[in-house]
Design goal:
Three copies of one chain form a homotrimer. In chain A, strands 1-8-3-5-6 form a five-stranded antiparallel β-sheet, covered by helices on one side. The longest helix of chain A has 11 residues. Chain A is α+β, with helices and mostly antiparallel strands. Chain A contains three helices and eight strands; from the N terminus they run ββαββααββββ. Chain A has one domain: Jelly Rolls (Sandwich), CATH 2.60.120.460. In chain A, a hairpin with a 2-residue loop joins β5 and β6. Chain A is elongated.
């Protein structure tokens, strides 16, 4: 598998990783298939949404505070219980399609690593299945 | 890949697309494998749940209002920030199993396109991997 | 496909199923590939998170009560509407990577069946795709 390294800079931050994924597709010469993305962390997820207006990601992060405010009350006392909650809600896996050598995203879609307990260096594991 | 077109009729509506998926399986003569469903939109997701009682989908939509009410306050000012939030919570991808030519859903499961900013014509991208 | 049977003991309980998945990988002699996990229920999901501190799972379950409290008000009157909501939020599918015969989980990650309407005997469907 391939591994993407992503440096996050804030405690909560949606970091766009679309270009890194496109580069992998080119390097691997994938023409048609599915890309599987797996985040090996428990306080950071992965999602697809809009980045054209950066306010969208801010609204998502802010809305999740209504379920999981940074300050508890929580039983997990490491100060990042909210990040664990948001990770399960966001999800740790994502797949994308490749068609004719291009990532088949919708017009407004980008891929975000959803950091909830940064700043940290995060990894995204990547596997490809080519269609035959 | 195949593309399903789905016409939604309300701003928020869970539209069942199970039959369309079953038709694709038949047409493609898939006997055993995995179907990957990808929604190329940022204000509409995909999920599996119950449709026998239509109140279930209504309860899900209503509950998500507690995190993302239609009227903000949001920073994204297009009037659909709530739909972006719900899309990330619901998810944009789903996979299903095919066993012996049949969709391997649980007894109460159907597949819903989760419209959060309709009415619109939506697309669902579909790829199949056959088991060998 | 393979089927895992999981006995849950509480109404809401995150049950670790990582060892059962590892056993399947060994039995099937998967060296490299992707494991697809599918939950055929509408009141029970699947997620990856931390189990080292059991409080993490409790915090996730408790936080989801803020969106979907066990007692409504709900339109679905079977007493488990909250479980349907949490299932869509958590998700019904998950994939994992196998590298060199080992499950490629992050250091703190385990796989949880997320029971929201137990106790019951639950199933998890499993399919493998080997990399060639």
């Amino acid at each position: 598998m391939e591994i993407l390294n992503v440096q996050t800079k804030e405690r909560e931050q949606y970091v766009e990783i679309t270009d890194e994924i496109k580069r992998l597709i080119k390097n691997k010469k994938i023409e048609n298939g599915v890309i599987f993305l797996y985040v090996p962390h428990t306080t950071c997820g992965i999602t697809v949404n809009e980045s054209y207006d950066p306010a969208v990601a801010e609204d998502i992060m802010h809305s999740l505070h209504l379920i999981a405010p940074p300050k508890g009350p929580y039983k997990h006392t490491e100060g990042n219980a909210d990040a664990h909650v948001k990770t399960t809600i966001t999800g740790s896996t994502l797949f994308l399609f490749v068609e004719n050598g291009e990532l088949a995203l919708g017009r407004w879609q980008v891929v975000f690593l959803a950091e909830y307990d940064g700043p940290r260096t995060r990894k995204v594991y990547v596997k490809f299945f080519k269609e035959v």
